[in-house]
Amino acid sequence: MKKHFLLIIVLLMSTSAFSQNVIQLFNSAGDFFKLLQEEKFTEAHARFDDNMKSKVTEDNLKKLWTDLGTKYGKANSFDAVQSKAQGEFFAVTVEGKFANGDQNFLLGFDKTQKIVGLFLVPGKSAAAYAKPVYADTNLYAEKSVYLNSPGHQLAAIITSPKNIKNFPVVVMVHGSGPADMDETVGANKPFKDLATGLAAKGIGSVRYVKRTLVYAQEFYKSFSVKEEVLDDAAAAIALARTVSGANPKQIFVFGHSLGGMLAPKIALATPDIAGIILAAAPARKLSDIIVDQNKYMFELTKDTTTAGKKQLTDALAEIDKSRITKLSPTLKGDSIIVGLPASYWIDLNNYNQVNTAKMLKQRIYILQGGNDFQVNKTDFDLWNTALGKKKNVLVKFYPELNHLLSPQTEKGTMAQYQIPASVSETLINDLSAWIKTKQ
């Protein structure tokens, strides 16, 4: 779960065929942010296309700008630094510099230079990814392939241990939001760490680019976790069964965060897989997780002002709207609530991951880090209470691990992810031992 409601809003892009002059696009991006700096929100909102206007109101835009000011202070400058054609639209990267920090943006433009998408994205990491000490490249090989599901093709990597036959294979399922095959966050690549670490222990894996990264234009309308996660997870499991040298009866699913929340649903649909691993998996509703994240981030600000408290209260009230379980005459499937369509919230809210996990016959490993500020021990305790005594379940708490499964000395904030830190070797060893255990 990589989103904080007070601080980050993601708006998915629609598509429109065009060819644009880069300088004109850069100027348009600069003009948009100049209007925001001058607090001319009506004029800034007018630069959206009709679809964006229907999804993001002028008040939404004003709130986003206010929240950014609260976090980073006065806006100093905005520089368009890159333009890239992506399918039928152009994405312009803008580096924003504020008094107390930097925030990058991604603007999508159509052929009329109307804004069709607005993303808040992390800046470039100050540090580069560092290969884990346990990733012995002499012990495994990697093969680039494509994961195919109807109408979609996603880049994927199969990591296989060398000189081992009949090895288990782990399919890695991402957390929420767009993600590459390594689940890159800042300077960290937890899925790459896991793949290479497990391969050095004789365990193969399949990891793939998440659909929301490659086909972002499909997700501005009504959708559910089926399109976001489940269809591609099923395709990855099918691919894992075909890996040369692998044991097709020893396929495991490693679900991280949202992926862990959905892992029981994946296992229920594919009862022949050997087991599932729930890493930092919410046991509660997604709305509860977002509430906790907002409260945590607000506490870190040490803001005791009436205005600050009101901002939190308003945010929590907005989040509360996501607890819907059905549509109504006034609520359509593509109605946006906390950045996601109503159809998505209804789908998740009608799913009980704990009860689903109770029904499973496959092996289950549930793990949680104590320094995770995105999913906390409350969820671990719920999993433990519900499943801890079942013979097919192992539940383990790692006090030092954060949400990206690396050892840390404190919970911290999103800034922690900009510092390279490998997935815990202890965790790699534990997972390897559990996967290889015969039952």
Per DSSP E runs of 2 or more residues, the count of β-strands stands at 14
User: What is the helix content?
Assistant: 25-40%
Q: What CATH first level of the largest domain would be assigned? A: Alpha Beta
Could you list the spans in which at least 5 consecutive residues all have pLDDT below 50?
A: 1-20
CATH topology of the largest domain: Rossmann fold
Please give the CATH architecture of the largest domain: 3-Layer(aba) Sandwich
Tell me the strand percentage band: 15-25%
How would a textbook summarize the main sheet?
A: 8 strands, mixed
Average residue-wise pLDDT: 89
Order of helices and strands: HHHHEEEEEEEHEHHEHEHHEEHHEHEH
Please compute the radius of gyration using only Cα atoms: 22 Å
Multimeric organization: single chain
Tell me the domain tally: 3
Side by side, the strands of the main sheet go 5-6-8-7-9-10-13-14
Polypeptide structure, described:
This protein is α/β, with parallel strands linked by helices and 439 residues long. It has 14 helices and 14 strands. The chain has three domains: 22-121, Nuclear Transport Factor 2, Chain: A (Roll); 137-285 and 334-436, Rossmann fold (3-Layer(aba) Sandwich), CATH 3.40.50.1820; 287-320. The chain has helices at 22-37, 41-45, 50-55, 58-72, 190-199, 211-214, 225-240, 258-269, 286-301, 306-320, 342-349, 353-359, 377-387, 425-436; strands at residues 75-86, 89-98, 101-109, 115-121, 140-149, 152-161, 167-173, 204-208, 246-256, 275-279, 336-337, 340-341, 363-369, 393-398. A hairpin with a 2-residue loop joins strand 1 and strand 2 (89-98). Helix 7 (225-240) packs across helix 8, helix 8 packs parallel to helix 12 and helix 9 (286-301) runs antiparallel to helix 10. The radius of gyration is 22 Å and the shape is globular. The two termini are 33 Å apart.
